[in-house]
Amino acid sequence: MPLRSPTPSPRFALATLFLCALATRADAQSLPASDSLPLRRGQWGVEGTLPYSAAGGGGVLRMLSSRTALALHVTGGVSGSDRGASDGTSVGVQPAIGVRRWRPIAPAFAGFVEAGGLFSFRRSTSEQQIAERREEESTRELGAGVYLQLGASYFVAPA
Predict the structure, then answer these.
(1) Residue 3 falls inside a structural domain
(2) From the CA atom positions of the chain, what is the Rg in Å?
């Protein structure tokens, strides 16, 4: 018995035609133009991060075009503990450099992707009282890596 291809019903054909027309209409409604962002080549920008557990940071952005920026960030923190017989402190800093690219998604809103490299340095010291003597230990950590950040920006300045 030969196989035959199924013939679509008239309802299926109408539904397919309707969905194609709807997709074409949605595609015709394009995103805001890149000049809708309040960014211009040569501008500088500043951003900050909210501190959590004694860590915080900030950065500067240098606009390379109306949608692309060079990003320089620094985060850091200090923590300490005092538990009677033992205590310690830790200090760390993490500079990063990357390139951020925005895409307008609505008036005053833009999604972004940022990629770059980061470096880290942490120094920790601890002291511990054992019997009659006190011991001190110090460690240093260095690190390097890459990062990828996805997010969105809201621009308070008008375009």
Answers:
(1) no
(2) 27
